Task: structure prediction
Amino acid sequence: MKCFNHPERDAVASCQKCGKGLCRECAEKHTPCMCDACAARVQKDRLQQAQNRENQRKQKYKDALVDTRSEFIATVVIGIVVAVLFTWWTAGHNSKPVGFLESVGVFFFYFCIPFGWKFLTYLQSFLPISIFGTWWFWFIYLIVKLFASVFVGVPAFIYQLVKTIRAQRKINKLK
Ligand SMILES: [Zn+2]
Ligand SMILES: [Zn+2]
Result:
């Protein structure tokens, strides 16, 4: 067999991919031993795979950002529902009329409760304990968590808002 590139030379090896004969000079060009065409194809496949991995990584990153935004929007909706319910519920208990600003402030405070709740649930995921208890235990636990949610609600909302604005900016940049 002669070398594919040099018909005057005897082949000392053959391409591992297509079996073409290669002289010593040609055989030493690529590792493992391949002809130029096959080496180019292998290189191209490798680049394509790297590109695919990069695209997948980018997609995952973008999905996570979109998830952050979706969760924020969902919590906003829940917050509005909670605020409306609480406002409606407490309206009957107020003996003296409240000012507009105060009403807005209280509404916002209620609105933030689900954000506090989510934040506490997030913190709970770091606790390596699983708690089992009676019906009463869970009732008190939920009440305590609700009160704690009221206290951490506003900062939790601000944190989520900033996080979502950042996520939105990153999403815009990716487009
Ligand atoms: Zn080949
Ligand atoms: Zn050759």
Summary: Strands lie at 13-14, 21-22. The CA atoms of residues 83 and 110 lie 5 Å apart.
